[in-house]
Amino acid sequence: MASSPHQPWCDPHECTADFTDFHPDASPATHASRWYECDPPGGRQAVEVEMQLVEYVDDPHPRTFIRIARSDFEDRQVFHLTVDQGHAVHQTLTEILAHATSGRR
What is the pTM for the complete model shown? Predict the structure, then answer.
């Protein structure tokens, strides 16, 4: 039995690795997880942030990235971090948020 080329986190609705027809995210072909919304509840945010895991099919040294999309009513920007960078960002954000929320009641 052949093993699947898809990562366990790959979302069939987001994955474009085997997609042959037009798809807005088809170039380059990627394995992708679902989009995770990073906006707090309580109404529409002025800036929306979403994240997902991606792996590019044609990457000569396959590795997983964290794709971060930041958008507002005028623009959308997409950034990619390696998983190692994601761990460093997580550690830094944890420290920053601890400082930001300390003493607040």
Answer: 0.77
